[in-house]
């Protein structure tokens, strides 16, 4: 495989979060509109200056990204719609970076936005995919709880992970969330509370599962010169990967596509795992955090439990993760959940975190994972960002 | 673990009868290949005709070579249970009423990984299991993993019993107990543990050998019922309709000969009056109340069995008008199935070959014994299929019919 071109001076700026709410009577267009307004305000640009748009949403239907252009009065010369859930921000970033690098667009707005009505989650899970509708939903598991219960039980049995190991991650993320005013979870979580919470789908308990909510996240992708001209603080893009349907012959998921592509990621970024100051994982369930630690090279396959026992994961810890609290403690706003970690990484690297700052953060990694089409997450991706 | 089924408590008449709920019933068209096999009690998967790769979930194109030639092939279902969970929560009413509910992830020896319901006798992973297909309460196909060894019954698992129409402790109406098949069915359901068996009897002046002996069975009550008389059907439905859990329509009017060998339509009219209109009268009187009782406690209304004939699939010219009446009944049974579906009441059609009774006296063997038809009906109620082809003749006709229905039509003229 030939070496991939670098990202030169592509940067990310203007991190925006539309505050999450458990339920909303608004449509996804409302949240996307608030995100775009936030991007324009934060960047101090005219709306007409946004000439590229990349949208991810589960609840925009029957609209798509192009409908959103008319809804919001944009006339972009570059448009993409990335229906990849938890991997959508990474994939949007990859598309947008090449677009601005090649001059197809100057400023691309990447937006993940979803609403959540009282019955949205059931309807979305019932019709998520053909495979889910035919071969998972009829078995009674609402959403991915059962799928992740299988993966968690299998991982724990194979590699000796204990409930306390998963719990340590959840508790640390809650600690991080308590400093984030936008997190929906406001109360501290103890390991005891985690371990004794009610069972949802054995071995998953309540605090292993994300809470669906409504909200939006957004950021801008442009060249450094444009950011400097606008007077914006920015994070540099050093490297990215994505992979879909990796390891299709694994009978049950115990690794993700990162394991195939991480060497390319580090080679393109020009750093190693030891240089990463914080990691924003995709954390819809804690077992997925552990797969990311392993597959992104922070420890060996199966070394996750020991890695957890040897580290602390708060923002001032030895291995800060999900520094705004992650979806487990902020809430999962549909496809915006796939953008939460990336937007927080930009904030940390420009020195404007919502909560506690990671001390001396120079390099951050963001990972995405998504789309439980049938029995496993199909999409994986990651990006390495650096402070200016 | 499975537990012994206990006699249900008497219904509390003060409480509201619960309305039936169903598991999610929407499937893609291609997934109904699983339904087609489960309807006859088999587990089939798509196997690529070009590269041999086994597919699941059902697909439009081979995951390996992209071929679109993906015929369904019966499977033995052996595999390894990789992981298991217990749902404590569900978005769907059917499962909310039934949690905790066990699910498993099974790697089949033929390669695919499948999500399954787990029989209570399946242990913790990793362990060997056998995956079977069953029609659930919504009449849709689902996969169930059972222990690899032995022949565990779905009905022995209190949760999976919902996928069966097990006779034990249920109240059964056999619409005609006078025929040889009817008598055999009455004895078989009593043997299988039915609580009450109402036995329909038309034409009281007509004494049939063996019939009076049925009255000596403690569970049996003989009721006047003449399917050719709308008033008679109405009266019986008014008396016991709200208590019938399983209705087995054994009424059958069978005379031989085709079209030209007999003058006039009176004989064909009699066949239609019992075999088709009789079913229609029953369906109108008993159908709505059974549908409403689909969740009436442990012994709710669960099944409607029609004794059809393999001749319903393709006309047997020597019994031409009889075949036509059974084809009409088959068609009507599909409408009944659609109407009862929302109540979770299963319509089971039984397609025997020629039965060894007086009307088939001159037919050469093999013929199926009345007791074997009855056993097949009880077995179908204890399982989860909806189309039953008991006996070698029926199985052979079915195979010929599936392979080439036009060829079967030609063969039957000889």
Task: Give a structural overview.
- The complex is a heterodimer of chains A (388) and B (414).
- Chain A has 388 residues and is of the alpha/beta class.
- Chain A folds into 2 domains: 10-119 and 214-230, Thiolase/Chalcone synthase (Peroxisomal Thiolase, Chain A, domain 1); 127-209 and 237-387, Thiolase/Chalcone synthase (Peroxisomal Thiolase, Chain A, domain 1, 3-Layer(aba) Sandwich), CATH 3.40.47.10.
- Chain A contains 14 helices and 11 strands.
- Chain A has helices spanning 28-43, 65-72, 88-102, 120-126, 130-135, 145-159, 163-178, 191-196, 224-230, 258-269, 286-295, 304-310, 326-330, 337-349; strands at 10-21, 52-56, 78-81, 108-114, 199-201, 204-205, 214-223, 234-244, 278-280, 363-372, 377-387.
- In chain A, 60% of the residues are buried.
- With 414 residues, chain B is an alpha/beta fold.
- Chain B folds into 2 domains: 32-158, OB fold (Dihydrolipoamide Acetyltransferase, E2P) (Beta Barrel), CATH 2.40.50; 171-411, 3-Layer(aba) Sandwich (Rossmann fold), CATH 3.40.50.
- Chain B has 10 helices and 15 strands.
- Chain B has helices at 32-39, 93-96, 180-191, 211-214, 230-240, 266-292, 320-341, 370-382, 392-403, 405-411; strands at 44-47, 54-55, 72-74, 78-87, 101-108, 113-118, 127-135, 141-147, 171-174, 196-201, 220-224, 246-249, 303-307, 346-350, 387-388.
- In chain B, the strands form 3 sheets. Chain B has a 7-stranded parallel sheet with strand order 11-10-9-12-13-14-15, with helices on both faces. Chain B has a 5-stranded mixed beta barrel with strand order 4-5-6-8-7.
- Chain B is globular, with a radius of gyration of 22 Å.
- The A-B interface holds A 121-122, 125-126, 130-131, 133-143, 145-146, 149-151, 153-154, 157, 198-204, 248, 251-252, 374-375 and B 23-28, 31, 56-58, 63, 82-92, 94-95, 98-99, 101, 103, 105, 107, 113-117, 125, 136, 138, 140, 142.
Topology:
The complex is a heterodimer of chains A (388) and B (414).
Chain A: E1 10-21, H1 28-43, E2 52-56, H2 65-72, E3 78-81, H3 88-102, E4 108-114, H4 120-126, H5 130-135, H6 145-159, H7 163-178, H8 191-196, E5 199-201, E6 204-205, E7 214-223, H9 224-230, E8 234-244, H10 258-269, E9 278-280, H11 286-295, H12 304-310, H13 326-330, H14 337-349, E10 363-372, E11 377-387
Parallel strand pairs in A: 2-3, 2-4, 9-10
Antiparallel strand pairs in A: 1-7, 1-8, 4-7, 5-6, 8-11, 10-11
Chain B: H1 32-39, E1 44-47, E2 54-55, E3 72-74, E4 78-87, H2 93-96, E5 101-108, E6 113-118, E7 127-135, E8 141-147, E9 171-174, H3 180-191, E10 196-201, H4 211-214, E11 220-224, H5 230-240, E12 246-249, H6 266-292, E13 303-307, H7 320-341, E14 346-350, H8 370-382, E15 387-388, H9 392-403, H10 405-411
Parallel strand pairs in B: 6-8, 9-10, 9-12, 10-11, 12-13, 13-14, 14-15
Antiparallel strand pairs in B: 1-2, 1-3, 4-5, 4-7, 5-6, 7-8
Helix pairs in contact in B: 3-8, 5-6, 6-7, 9-10
